[in-house]
Write a structure and sequence with these properties.
mainly alpha
Length: about 325
């Protein structure tokens, strides 16, 4: 395991030991586009809308179960992943298009855009360094029981925090941690955005009550709750139960086996080690980046085997936190 360097000055973000790419080739991978993401955006929206129609016509039948899983799962993966790609500024070549879609996808995902952007930048700077990574929910140093994992895998904890943070930020109440990773000039825009987000939620609820409509519940809330379980299964493969305070991304981060259907909505985040290695490479170039460095990466597994391994690691750690608490898990 790499020696932790949490107090290093200047800080060097985590990377892959022994992996280098020719500068000219890397610049080629970093080339952005408007056409490629617009095509994917159109395919995603049209197909998810079709799944929503299937879900609608299946009400009252047994087919409502698979269709709500299909509709909710693809919608949640799409919202999370597109918001994430836009947070990096790599989704589209045109900045105005990137920021417009960032707002749309973040609203669908449920998290205010600027907080998402700056907390995620901190995640890349301090990937899986406890008390430094702003998106690290728990540590292998602590006993984590099944209930804690379930709160995250169902996204209940996720959305409770989204709502809590948006409400606090709407009133200008920023934690010391948020102030650390957010430029001071962005605090007011973050507060303004949070006020807009809270306003959207209140108006949507008020309109539903006024018209006595359950459309928001049937077509957003229920599919989102179902879909978030699928989304968090994939998000959980990225770092859960991996090594901590380690500068080598091969120890802290996982890629999973690519799947063309999942990756359409996951925006190629199956290549997660590759993404952390070069965060400015857009989603559509990650398969090419993988081809360049795959011989130096751990062999990827599927999301289900990894989730089973994560659960086993959690269970064993809950039974005995003292034994090998910081031992690097096997690569997945």
């Amino acid at each position: 395991m790499s020696k932790p360097a949490i107090d290093a000055d200047p800080w060097v973000p985590p990377s892959l030991e022994g992996v280098q790419i020719e500068r000219k080739k890397l610049k080629g991978f970093m080339r952005r586009s408007d056409t490629i993401p617009l095509i994917r955006l159109l395919l995603s929206v049209l197909s998810i809308s079709f799944y929503g129609w299937l879900y609608y016509i299946s009400w009252g039948t047994i087919w409502v179960v698979p269709t709500v899983i299909l509709f909710g799962g693809t919608m949640s993966l799409f919202a999370y992943s597109l918001s994430h790609e836009c947070a990096h500024g790599t989704a589209f070549k045109s900045r105005w298009l990137n920021e417009t879609v960032f707002w749309f996808s973040s609203t669908l995902f449920g998290q205010e855009p600027l907080y998402r952007r700056y907390s995620h930048a901190e995640h890349h700077t301090y990937t899986w360094f406890w008390e430094k990574d702003a998106q690290m929910p728990f540590t292998i140093r602590q006993k984590v029981n099944l209930l804690t994992y379930l709160r995250w895998y169902t996204s209940l904890e996720y959305h409770y925090l989204f709502i809590k943070i948006a409400l606090l930020h709407a009133f200008g109440r920023f934690s010391a941690r948020t102030r650390e990773f957010t430029p001071e000039t962005e605090l007011w825009p973050m507060q303004r955005n949070s006020m807009i987000f809270v306003g959207i939620w209140v108006v949507a609820a008020a309109v539903s009550v006024y018209f006595q409509s359950m459309a928001l519940v049937w077509f957003y809330v229920i599919p989102k709750i179902v879909g978030d379980m699928i989304n968090m299964t994939y998000v959980g493969t990225q770092h859960f139960e991996m090594a901590e305070d380690d500068l080598n991304l091969a120890h802290t981060t996982r890629s999973i086996k690519p799947n063309w259907f999942i990756d359409l909505y996951y925006w190629n985040m199956s290549y997660h080690i590759e993404h952390h290695f070069a965060p400015t490479v857009p989603f559509h170039a990650l398969p090419k980046l993988n081809e360049e460095i795959k011989d130096k990466l751990p062999e990827p597994q599927g999301a289900i085997p990894i989730t089973i391994d994560v659960y086993k690691a959690m269970r064993n750690r809950h039974l005995s936190i003292e034994k090998d608490a910081l031992e690097m898990p096997t690569s997945h």
